[in-house]
Design goal:
The chain contains 4 helices and no strands. By secondary structure, the protein is mostly helical. It has one domain. Helix 1 packs across helix 2. The N and C termini lie far apart (36 Å). 4% of the residues are buried.
Length: 67
């Protein structure tokens, strides 16, 4: 499997998470997550703060909620 194929595969795995689609999966990639285990062990509030820092603006918290 090429690097490009592997990258696409993990982006698809991210997008399959509840409440996560193509855009959020790319944000997670930009935040240097490379597998589901890294996401699972991180703190949601830390992820939210990192997303705001990455994007340079406040993010809607509802994108991080299962509700």
């Amino acid at each position: 499997m090429s690097t490009e194929e592997a990258d696409k595969k993990i982006l698809c795995e991210f997008a399959a998470l509840p409440g996560v689609g193509d855009i959020i999966s790319r944000y997670l990639w930009e935040m240097d997550y490379r597998n589901l285990a890294e996401i699972a062990r991180d703190d949601p509030e830390s992820m939210y703060a990192a997303m705001e820092k990455l994007k340079g603006r406040l993010m809607t918290k509802s994108i991080w909620s299962d509700c």
